[in-house]
Write a structure and sequence with these properties.
mainly alpha; about 90% helix
Length: about 425
Amino acid sequence: MSAVDAIAAPASGYRARTALRHGLTALGPVCISGAHFLASVVFLRALPPAQFGLLSFLFVVVPFCLSASGALLGAPLVTAIKRGGAVDEGEIATYLKANLVVSALAGLAAAAMLALSGAPAAVAAIAGLYATLMAARWFARSLTYVTRGPARPVASDLIYGAVLCLGIAALGFAHRLSLLGGAQVLAVAALCSVPAFGLDYLRRQFAPGAGSLARYASTWREVARWSLTGVALTELTANAHAYLVTFIAGPGAFAVIAIGALLMRPAALVLSALPDLERPAMARKLAAGDAAGALRSVKEFRTACGAVWALTVLLAGALLMWFPHLILKKGYDEAQVLAVVALSALIVAVRTLRGPESVLLQAAGEFRRLAGASLWSSLTSLAVTFVLLVAAGPVLSLLGILAGDAVMTARIFALSRVWKLRHG
């Protein structure tokens, strides 16, 4: 072997391991994204616009619940890892007890949001159950990634996707494709995916008397309140149009906007899932004083996210060019749909660009500064979206989201530059 080959071999092996790690992590979210995509396409064609708008609104509300769970539980867990390299059993028990409370609150919030948007009481109740199960499952994913690696989280994702697809097929064969049926299948899929984390995890989650919510108070003061503030403000930046359009113009108007989110869902879901792996990995490197390794992870993360975004855009373009009948049906304006998809792709591109820097700052514990960055972007997004919604309609209101995301991206890159200068 030549000297060049000797140098290239380790580098090639490292790239292969990196690709495998990202590929394994992305496998579960991609499966879920595919199942959600199938569900959305089926119900887009089976439901009237107002009901499809309600189902799509559920797909906005529940991810926010998952982000809030990550802020209240996942982010403090990463901070604890960065602080000491390991988390003791008592602290984990506290997080598990808090997970029950956070998951219940997520369910109540989702049920209330659906009810306020005009969903029938039964649909709102099932939506609340779905949000509760998904939030509980989300922390299970975060904790299991840290303690056991990606195998169980990926298995849970695959089970969720498979059950959801089978449930939709069963509804189709039984000619029972309805809004209530869709909510029920989602809840069943979430329930079936939880046992994949193992009996040992379930025993710890529901162990009577384990953990102390009082102990969580210090976590709330030091980390969680700032990370939750950042998530809430980020939600205003990212999805102000979803809430404003649904509550002001109605779920039928939101249905057109939802088509863009539907076609961008693979990239959006991977962007929300990959941080579960990258954040603790970066935190460990920072705890070990390996800032260069953390910055290398940022570059790898951006490459992986960029590849997923590009593939998502290509898939969306292919569907709209060659198979538009799979997406569109009577009642939807083709020009509006094309404009929505183009704007949605641009918004996701901006989020893809800043995502790795944001995760690095989270791993470094910079939640308070991130919350400040989110404040300005959310104010921009909310104001511009509202004005455009009233003056120009739901489609152009997406420019408000783009404006807010641009402000946040600029602020996060500025914070990242300052952090890099401080840490070499």
